[in-house]
Fold this sequence. Notes:
By secondary structure, the protein is mainly alpha-helical.
Amino acid sequence: MVVRSRFPSLYKLEKYKQCKIGDRFWRQGSFFGWAWGWVKNPVSDDERAEWESHIRVINAASWKGGSDSWVWLGASNGRFSIRSVKGLMEKEKENANIYALNWCKWVPLKCNIHAWRAEMDRIPTNEALGKRNIPMANSMCSFCGTSVETANHIFTNCLVSMAIWEGISRWFKMSPFSASSVRDLLNIAKTSGLEAEKKDMTHKTIIISCWSIWNARNGKIFKGKEEKLKEIIGEIKSLGFLWYKHILKRKTLEWFKWCNQSFI
Ligand SMILES: [Zn+2]
């Protein structure tokens, strides 16, 4: 078992990186035990989870004596072969679960990238920062404080985002929608049954909304600014209008038509 790749957080805590599991085991007569050499005890969520898993693996192992040997886990007989590597690669291809975001040309790149990263849970939510050992007061949602702040929570399950999606669905005169993940959210327009142009507009507005929700969340944390729902929805409409009109050069588009969605 290679601790470095299987338990990276524990590996960071090990004082002597070259040591083997056996080096931490001691036996004296009929007494035996473990003498770990941590820089500090495992305390973070990641470290504790890895520690528990590590102990489970050790307890499940049986030592038969003799020297260590390498076993290739990619084949049932434990022997490495190019054929088994190919088999694993094929399997990986089948299981590929990569989401392809429909990028929008009239929405700034920063918003597209933000939505793309949110779908992969690669934005600095309180939970993600905690996992990277950045000291946080807590990992709860910055808006509602009732759930762990993950990308999925903040954009789909949080009371704030749910109210915003309700406002957006009213604005687009479509049935209220909800999503259980950011991916679901970014697929809402696709399955909405709306006509092509409105579908496209809904998708872009969801991308802008995620951007505005995230900005409101950051404003609350870093500036102590409590934005009201009306203000967040107002910003989503204004940014959409500004970018749609100027980036697509729709100079004749008027604000009231945008607000009524009567220009589509
Ligand atoms: Zn929340």
